[in-house]
Amino acid sequence: MTSVRVDKQHDGSEAAESASGEGYQRGLGARQIQMIAIGGAIGTGLFLGAGKAISKAGPSLILAYAIAGLVIFFIMRALGELLMYRPVSGSFSEYAREFIGPFAGFVTGWTYWLFWVVTGITEVTAAATYMTYWWNIPQWVSALVFTIILYGANLISVKLFGELEFWFSMIKVTAIIGMILICAGILTIGFSDAADTASMTMLWSEGGFFPKGIGGTLMTLQIVMFAFLAVELVGVTAGESKDPKVTLPKAINTVPWRIAVFYVGALIMILSVVPWTHFQPGVSPFVAAFEEMGLGVGAAIVNFVVLTAALSSCNSGMYSTGRMLRDLALNGQGPRVFTKLTKSGTPLIGTTVSAALMLVGVWINYVAPGKAFEYVVSFATISGMWAWIMILVSQIRYRAAVRRGEAPESEFKAPGAPFTSWFALLFIGMVIVMMGIDEGARVSLYCAPLWALLLGVSYLILKSRNPENAAFKR
């Protein structure tokens, strides 16, 4: 039995003691957790992927983000309920192991690790794409340099990691708010080249609110859901938060206004100033918007901001992969070498292995720079959504355990659950169906069975060699 498990009771003090026993340093304060939570929802999916989504759905993308954002809130409240029950760095992998079964925990831990490896490739790809705005540098060169730099940054203490993420997120938040204010100024005061045509009526005058039909909007759901991937990262920080019982609920409750401002609000402003027909895949809608407004300097600034956003997400990915590998190792479901920590509390071996695999992104950018982002987005989306599915199913099973008197009630109950959790599961199921219909996204569904087969065989080998490690003990 590892230190992340609780033997008798699951009250707040024992949960905290359990988490602290994992060997990590509680170096993440309230403001850092808040900004990690905010910044986790603002990344490549919004800054780069939205360009393709706008070209596919037009203004109706706003509605897609709003509905998907509501589903994300249901997922985060389900996670919050579990976190207040038992805050550990293993997070949803631990909950899947406890409430669904050891195999579910095994699959979730390794799949979430893979998700962040693939997402790291995605973010490095995006960062390399942004570099071409200023210099004609081969994408693979930029991807290699960024991967090496971020690996070095992740060897620092968690406190400094939190501080870096705080300022990365602050840059992203400030930039989006600034862009919203500029667009609002164009609509009300009237300045820049776009002032003559800027109007809220552009949300429906350029072919209607659904210019590509309802089907076009539905086909953007995988891009929309990808934009929200990483909001669950706050769950992984539970074992290193100074006061998880206070900071985590506050961070989770900011989800609605984060989505309302940074996604819905930003898109309403942009599409009211620049016609949706002017946006195209592979080009950041924020950069394109400023260029359409005749604000060339503004476009350069935004390009720097979105570059920062991509590197921030990749940095978070390296942080998460090392912790997830260590949780698997602590539970006997991964190589023991991953349990080792540096003096500063960093899982060095797990982070190193993950960073090495992220170098695959360099190869992808070398052989297929034009398709690199589309490939990795598809696979990252399906693997990331598995974590959401496990969060929801674990929360439903946890509620059932509470009703049977087998587990204490959480202090942070999800409103409307378990009905909201079932609704979120159905929505995710619909997104997966849409991915199967979309030829570009279908590649991820081909890869998923192969990954599942690999995990199944690995688990059978693990169970045959050490049955004790294939069982969860309280």
UniProtKB/TrEMBL annotation:
Q: Which family does it belong to?
A: Belongs to the amino acid-polyamine-organocation (APC) superfamily. Amino acid transporter (AAT) (TC 2.A.3.1) family.
For whether the record's keyword set contains DNA repair, the answer is no
Q: Please name the Pfam families in this protein's record.
A: AA_permease
State if Signal is listed as a keyword: no
This chain's source organism reads Streptomyces lavendofoliae
Q: Give all residue intervals belonging to the Amino acid permease/ SLC12A domain.
A: 33-465
Q: Where in the cell is it found?
A: Cell membrane
How the protein sits in the membrane?
Answer: Multi-pass membrane protein
Q: What is this protein called?
A: Alanine glycine permease
Give the residue ranges for region: Disordered: 1-21
What lineage is on file?
Answer: Bacteria, Bacillati, Actinomycetota, Actinomycetes, Kitasatosporales
What PANTHER family does the database record attribute to this sequence?
GABA PERMEASE, L-ASPARAGINE PERMEASE
